[in-house]
Amino acid sequence: MILLLAAIILPPAYFAVAGESEAVELPPPGRIVQLPGGAQLNVLESGQGPVIVLVHGLPGCAYDWTPLPERLASRGRRVIVYDRVGYGYSSPRGPESDYTYDQNASELLELLELLDLSDVTLVGWSYGGGVVIRAGRRGSERVGRLVLLGSVGPIIEIPEPGLVRRVLFSRPVLAWVSMIPPLSRAVARSASAEVFSDQPMPGWWVPQLRANLARPGTTDTWLEEEEGLTVGDIDPGPIDLPILVINGDDDRSVPMEVAEDLYRRAQPDAKLLRVAGGSHMLPITHPDLLARHLSEFAE
Fold first, then answer.
1. What CATH code is carried by the domain that includes residue 185?
2. Does any domain span residue 202?
3. 284 within domain boundaries
4. pLDDT of 101-113, one tens digit each?
5. How many domains does the chain have?
6. Full residue range of the structural domain in which residue 47 is found
7. Does any domain span residue 259?
8. What span, in angstroms and rounded, lies between the C-alpha atoms of 267 and 157?
9. What's the average model confidence in pLDDT over 68-96?
């Protein structure tokens, strides 16, 4: 028992004194936009032209899209990225908040209203795909078209977490891991290798992931959204908008079958783009390809 307590207490104590050898900070924030309900969103903008709004997944933040926004801006598009509530520099979610697609969709539509945007192309990545589907189903005149990028869909399998995963991804264990930088880096790198399908990842990715998870409330939002994940209410079928579905055929998080099902449901005004060898991280690994297709779709 004494050895176990020492193993739990001593590593965080040591690194609390020794400090972190690697800088763990997000890039600088953009401008803060306050929503009617009081939550604040960190918003970054670039470029001029038809508007594209990028909605990140979980756990994620606006900076996950690097370097896609600059590629789109160079193609004559106005690009808006933001931290969803609970992530990055945006407000943490309050204790009474809903951790749902619909809550995120409401906040997204409020942002479009406050920025007075129209004919917007909404791009939802992973969990963000569920958010833009729910936003599209509201029938807002501000939304012109949807892009579902590596998006969750009605047939995606949500495995029931086993005991080991429930323990490893419990709040106390994650908090303990975060206090031991070498272990935190190793866990983040291992998890990231899966979503990158073992392809090379940029050097900034793991430090940025750790920086986002270190922000107040981010881990809680991630776990709450993941625990409450449902897929029955994200059918794009009733949406009367052009829809572009994009997926890598080596995506280990969202298999190609999910994208094909989304495409069939979104007919007749839908397109499907299969990216050969693409992982779940297409904005990072294939920014030029995405910039070309998104800019053409947003015309």
1. 3.40.50.1820
2. yes
3. yes
4. 999 999 999 999 9
5. 1
6. 31-297
7. yes
8. 22
9. 96
Per-residue pLDDT band at 276 (split at 50, 70, 90):
very high
pLDDT at 113: 98
In the predicted structure, residue 165 carries a pLDDT above the cut 60? no
64 token code pair: 């996950």
- Three-state secondary structure of the chain: CHHHHHHHHHHHHHHHHHCCCCCCCCCCCCEEEECCCCCEEEEEEECCCCEEEEECCCCCCHHHHCCHHHHHHHCCCEEEEECCCCCCCCCCCCCCCCCCHHHHHHHHHHHHHHCCCCCEEEEEECHHHHHHHHHHCCCCCCEEEEEEECCCCCCCCCCCCCHHHHHHCCHHHHHHHHCCHHHHHHHHHHHHHHHCCCCCCCCCHHHHHHHHHCCCCHHHHHHHHHHCCCCCCCCCCCCCCCEEEEEECCCCCCCHHHHHHHHHHCCCCEEEEEECCCCCCHHHHCHHHHHHHHHHHCC
